[in-house]
Specification:
The protein is α+β, with helices and mostly antiparallel strands and 159 residues long. The protein has one domain. The protein has three helices and nine strands. The strands form two sheets. The protein has a seven-stranded antiparallel sheet. Strands 1-8 form a two-stranded antiparallel ribbon. Strand 4 and strand 5 form a beta hairpin. The longest helix is centred in the C-terminal third of the chain and has 13 residues. The two termini are 28 Å apart. The structure holds zinc ion (ZN). The site of zinc ion has 7 residues, from helix 2.
Length: 159
């Protein structure tokens, strides 16, 4: 299996893609669903604005003995670490393939690996000025990307 760093870094780093267009994995969502434990599994699916499912991944969680978990999905294994909270308990973090700690990892269109927002240099539609938004929309249109925004549903499996 080729690692994330072994291949060509996707073209997406050279053009600003808004996070709204990316499929997102949220550590909070996994935590809220009580999935951050050895042997848990489930899937995350994403729908476009028309409600059509446009992507789905299955994942399995393993590990935990040393406080470190691994989320395996497709060809990618994402490490999950934890750090103590100020108010007790632990907070979980994804470890981005480039080593960053992140609460959310993103899968931009036409890419195969989840990474953090910084590594993909993602922008946010909502904080861009209007004319920039138009330009982005046009750019995205020309890139033949079918979905401007993606929402997601987390479902639990094999529990
Ligand atoms: Zn990163």
């Amino acid at each position: 299996m080729g690692g994330f760093g072994s291949g060509r870094w996707p073209d997406v780093v050279n053009r600003k893609i808004p996070v709204e267009m990316c499929r997102c994995l949220s550590i909070k969502q996994l935590n809220d669903a009580d999935l951050l434990d050895d042997g848990r599994s489930g899937h995350v699916s994403w729908v476009n604005t028309g409600g059509k499912e446009i992507g789905k991944i299955d994942f399995v969680i393993s590990g935990g003995k040393d406080g470190k978990l691994h989320l395996k999905t497709g060809g990618q294994v994402i490490d999950i670490i934890r750090s103590p909270c100020n108010y007790g308990g632990f907070r979980h973090w994804f470890v981005c393939p480039r080593g960053c700690k992140a609460m959310k990892l993103y899968l931009p269109p036409k890419t195969e690996f989840f990474a953090c927002r910084n590594c993909y240099d993602l922008s946010r539609l909502s904080v861009q000025e209007n004319h920039k938004r138009d330009r982005t929309a046009k750019h995205l249109e020309s890139a033949d990307l079918e979905n401007l925004t993606v929402s997601q549903a987390l479902r639990l499996g094999n529990l």
